[in-house]
Amino acid sequence: MFFNKYKKAMIRILIALLMIVAIIIYSNLLKVVDYKFDNIGYQSDKALNIALITDLHACYYGDNQKWLIDSLKQKQPDVILLGGDIYDDKMPFDNADELLSQLPNIAPTYYVDGNHENWLSQADYNKVMGKIHTHGVSIIHGKSISVPNTNVVIHGISDPDGGAFDTDLKIVTDKLNNDTGKNHVHILLTHRPEHIDTYLNYPFDIIMAGHAHGGQWRVPFVINGVYAPNQGLFPKYAGGLYEFANEHNTKFIVSRGLARESTRVPRLFNRPELVFVSLE
Question: Is residue 12 part of a domain?
Fold first, then answer.
C-alpha cells in the first residue's frame, strides 16, 4: 500500500540519484587535452610534444598509475613537465612515487613544487625532494633548461609558499632577458595561475600552470569554474587556454589537474586532465 502510494515519487528519487552518481563518475574520468601552436617561432626539424601534469595530489589512476602511463606512452612526449602538487600533505606518497618512477623512461621530466608539497613538514618536504631526485626527475626551481635540437627554453619557479618564488622568478627572467635576441621560445612552468599579471611583465611565449583544479565545479558553456584557491568564486583562470594580445602573443595554459579522491568536494562537469602541447 505504501509503495503503491509513493511509487512515482520513489521512482523519481531513484532516477535523480542515479543521474547524480552518473554525473560524478563522468566528472572523474580522465581526459586528454591537446593544444597545438605553429605560430610562436618554434624552430626544429620535427614537432616538439610536451606533456603537462599538475595537481595529482598522489591520487590513484589504476594499478601502477596505468591509465596515466598508457596515455603518455601513446602520445610519446619529448618532454614531461610536472607543475606542482604531485604529492600531497595529507595523502600517502605511494601513487605519486609510482608515477614519477616511470616518467623518465618515457621522456626527460622536469618538476616544480606546489603549495601542498610546501605544507609538508620540513622533514617530509626534504624526503619528497629526495624521492624526486631518486626517480630521475629534475627539479628546476630557478633554473632554465634548453631542449636539445630545438630553440625552446623551459624556465621553472617554485611555489610562493616555499619562500623562493620572487628569487626564482628574478633568476629565470634575468636569463630570459639576456636571451631575447637569440630567437628562443620561452616557456614558464609554474604552479600558480593567479600571478599571471606578474608573468606577463616578461617575454614568455607560453606559460603553464595548475593549482585552480578547474574551478572544481563547472556549468558547461556557462561557467568555466565555480571556485579556485587564491582566486575565489568564479575564477578568471580556472582552466583552459588563455591568449593575450601583447607583444609576445603569450599563450597561458591552466591545467584542470588530476586531483580526485584527495578533494573534499567532488568534481562536477570538470574532468581531470592530462595536457599535451605540440609546437610545430
Answer: no
Examine residue 24 and state whether it is found in any structural domain, yes or no: no
pLDDT in tens, 118-172: 999 999 999 999 999 999 999 999 999 999 999 999 999 999 999 999 999 999 9
Who contacts 232 (Cβ-Cβ below 8 Å, separation ≥6)? none
d(CA 247, CA 22): 45
Give which of 60, 55, 64, 65 is closest to 88, Cα–Cα. 55
271 is in which domain, residue-wise?
A: 32-279
CA distance 237 to 255: 10
Domain at 113, CATH number: 3.60.21.10
Query: What domain count does the chain have?
Result: 1
Q: State the distance between the two ends of the chain, measured CA to CA, in whole angstroms.
A: 69
Q: Write out pLDDT tens, residues 61-92.
A: 999 999 999 999 999 999 999 999 999 999 99
pLDDT digits (tens, 9 = 90+) for 181-203: 568 999 999 999 999 999 999 99
